[in-house]
Specification:
Number of domains: 2
Strand order of the largest sheet: 9-11-10-12-13
Largest sheet: 5 strands, mixed, barrel
Structural class: mainly beta
Oligomer: single chain
Radius of gyration: 14 Å
Number of helices: 1
Helix content: under 10%
Distance between the termini: 32 Å
Strand content: 35-45%
Shape: globular
């Protein structure tokens, strides 16, 4: 899947808490993007990187192009069920944890690295789509 280059309106059910995180320097996080925190504690578009921690889905665009670390914040949904783009999903993945592929897609845990957990697949739609429940207290990423 390709990383986002524009805002994306995701379908969602029961979106919960919204939290704000400081954005990395010279980065744009698009609405609908999967968002992670880097090793310095700043938000950026998700990538499959071992040291990054997935924190949610961007509520709105946050453009920090030309800015310094933390000049702006991004609001993210940290809980809820979202219809996400998938890579090689299968019915057998229902009930399992999916991982970041890029800021626009998730994948099962059988590929190369799959370091950054996103949430549980609760409804399989197709090999390229499914409903994913995110809840970061359950994943141990974001405190209450």
């Amino acid at each position: 899947m390709a990383a986002l280059t524009a805002d994306l309106e995701l379908e969602m059910r029961g979106a919960g808490k919204i939290r704000s995180f400081d954005v990395t320097a010279n980065d744009t996080i698009y609405k609908g993007s999967l968002v992670s925190i880097d090793t310095d504690g700043f938000a950026l578009p998700s990538t499959d990187t071992a040291a990054y921690r997935f924190v949610g889905i961007a509520v709105e665009q946050a453009d920090n192009t030309g800015g310094s670390d933390g000049d702006i914040e991004v609001k993210v949904y940290t809980e809820g069920c979202f219809k996400l783009t998938g890579v090689s999903l299968a019915q057998a993945n229902v009930g399992t944890i999916l991982y970041v592929n890029d800021d626009n897609s998730v994948e099962d845990g059988t590929g190369a690295a799959q370091d950054c957990a996103v949430g549980m697949l609760v409804k399989y739609i197709s090999a390229t789509s499914g409903w994913v429940e995110i809840n970061h207290r359950a994943l141990g990423v974001v405190s209450a």
